Amino acid sequence: MKTSLKNARKYEAENNNAYQKDRPAFHFTPYIGWMNDPNGFSYYKGQYHLFYQYYPYGLGWNSMHWGHAVSKDLLHWQYLPAALAPENKYDSFGVFSGSSIELSDGQQLLMYTGVTKKNNKDTQLQCIAIGDGLNYKKYKGNPVIGKNLFPQGFDSQHFRDPKIWQAKDGSFYCIAVACKKDGNGAILLYHSPDAVSWNYEGILLENDGSLGKMWECPDYFELDGKDFILLSPQNMLPQENKYMSGSRTAYFCGKLDLLQKKFIAEYNEAVDSGIDFYASQTVKAPDGRIILLGWMQNWDTCNLTDRGARNWFGQMSTPRELSLKNGKLVQTPIKEIEAYRISKTSINDVNIDGDYFPENLQGRIIDMEVTIRPKEEKSLHSFTINLAQSEKYKISLEYKANNQTLTFDRSKTEMRNAVCSQSACKVSDSQELKLRILLDTYSAEVFVNDGQQVMTNTFYIEPSAKKISFNSVGSAVVNITKYDLHF
Fold first, then answer.
1. Kind of pairing, strands 250-257 and 262-270?
2. What pairs with residue 341 in β-bridges?
3. CA-to-CA distance for 79 and 73, rounded, in angstroms?
4. Most exposed: 87, 121, 337, 466, by fewest CB within 10 Å?
5. Would you place residue 237 in the very low, low, confident or very high pLDDT band (cuts 50, 70, 90)?
6. pTM: predicted TM-score of the whole model, two decimal places
């Protein structure tokens, strides 16, 4: 084990009490220091493994390591020592994002981007490390996808985030993102008989300029006979009712044609319509579920968040189960979370017109379902749910019935630099709106109409703020079911 990884593990051991302080109840946070993208999200040796982009020595992005944790239920995580650190000629500036797979001999392979910097210019190439779920040894022949396998017309400063999977014939495929000379992103396809010796196959999918500029963090999975590619476009321009500007997440649905070496896309959609969701990865659970996890932050807003006195920064989303409905992805919180529900509160068929402050309804670590429908046809103009409410602060969800728009607002919080305060999505034109809200200490995830849309947002309000209130402009009939969550 080389010095930089030893130093990271030594630093973690010396700060072994740090991770107990000021944490969310059920959202994963780094052992210590900075965290961004999930990496190598996988199931191996009877446990879920989560690696993550990690800088243990401070609260800002810096020389990237891979942190490591394991879980049986995706909600309780055991921290393991850092798995990878920058330490070789080919990864001296950082071990960037990647993926993992179990090999036929039972070992786990990590595939990552090794980064070097010279004259303030990056070179990014793909590397592997192989290990036993705790310790990993980098391959002596790294990088396995080097400059000789990089096609003309692309910029090797932006060539990263490999996603590896095994085909039915036992061979391996990998996709990685790259940047064309015009600044637009593309996904390159590679093939290998053994996950070590790779060949370039071609451009699988490329940006025509309509979906941001550079693409990051591709992920591939199959679901109910359809193929999906997830990715995270940067520098998006807004598209009405579909994408906000900035750093976002999207998915392509279609067909992966390995003979043509193309992904034939039918359509693309936003994965999440909130402010804080990026770099998502999937894992196939032992029971066949496809489970999605994302960094609950994004590059456009992470520097605006007040770190306060905390010694960690960064959260992962609640893991989500993916399914198909009417050809579109549906996301719901993993079923495991229901085992931690306690103290059920129900309010049935209450008529609200104006302010409503139910005395028996409060909480900060909650799983709450709210259904809203007009009392009479066109009687409802707007409906607002206020959460984490104190005398001064709150977050809000406002539904405007005339255009079926749901808006999340965190402008009235203790985030001192919250330049981006709102996100919005168009919901289905229905007489009833159904919301499921997972509220944790510093985040709110809103699942709309059984997961047809999701809005993920972080915020900062002192954890003692637990009030919940409602306001209706016009008459609404509302049903509320709230559980506290105890972990």
1. antiparallel
2. 485
3. 14
4. 121
5. confident
6. 0.96
Question: Which amino acid type is present at position 181?
Answer: K
Using alpha carbons only, what angle is made at residue 86 by residues 172 and 116, rounded to the nearest 5 degrees?
80
Which tokens sit at 184? 């637009």
Q: What is the CA radius of gyration of the chain?
A: 23
Strands 33-44 and 312-313: parallel
State the pLDDT at residue 236. Answer: 86
Averaged confidence pLDDT in the chain: 94
**pLDDT, position 21:** 65
The residue assigned the tokens 């940006």 is 207
pLDDT for 245 equals 86
Q: Choose, from 37, 227, 300, 440, the residue flagged as catalytic.
A: 37
Are the beta carbons of 364 and 466 closer than 8 angstroms? Answer: yes
Q: Could you identify the residue written with the tokens 């306060």?
A: 308
At 395 the pLDDT is 96
Query: Please, what is the end-to-end C-alpha distance for the chain in angstroms?
Result: 36
Determine the 3-state secondary structure of 287 from DSSP: coil
Contact between 70 and 108 under an 8 Å Cβ cutoff? The reply is no
Please indicate whether residue 37 is annotated as part of the active site.
yes
Which residue did the predictor score with more confidence, 70 or 429?
70
